[in-house]
Specification:
about 130 residues; mainly beta; 4-stranded mixed β-sheet; elongated; Cu-oxidase_fam; Cupredoxin; oxidoreductase activity; copper ion binding
Length: about 130
């Protein structure tokens, strides 16, 4: 496997403060809504993302930009989304922690979260 895709980055690079710029934007659209599912064989209304539980994975390469548009399709609750895992450098004003760093999205409202994938590696759901 070639490491040529890393350009001038190597084991000595300070990747805390430098990263590649791929010019690629990974775009996702998430609808938060109630969906009847049966994860434990008993059907019940659950809060889902794109009618999935758990919600869809976000995939990006080191140096990509991520854009995630979140729309609240709930009928009566405000909501938000918090991305556990990716480093969102300098955008803590909108990391999805409702009532802490941003207001909840009212039913029918949407918000687009944007960040650069400044870390490499994998964060997986188990």
């Amino acid at each position: 496997m070639s490491r040529g895709c890393w350009g001038s980055f190597n084991i000595g690079s300070d990747v805390t403060y430098t990263w590649p710029n791929t010019g690629v934007t990974r775009r996702y659209s998430f609808d938060v809504q109630h969906t009847v599912l049966a994860p434990d064989s008993a059907s019940k209304a659950m809060m889902t993302v794109n009618k999935q539980y758990p919600g869809p994975a976000i995939e990006a390469n080191w140096g990509d930009d991520a854009e995630v548009r979140v729309c609240n399709r709930l009928t009566s609750n405000g909501t938000g989304i918090h991305f556990q895992g990716p480093r969102q450098l300098n955008i803590n004003y909108a990391d999805g922690t409702v009532s802490q760093t941003q207001c909840a999205l009212a039913p029918g409202d949407c918000h687009t979260y944007r960040w650069k994938a400044t870390q490499h590696g994998t964060s997986s759901r188990k």
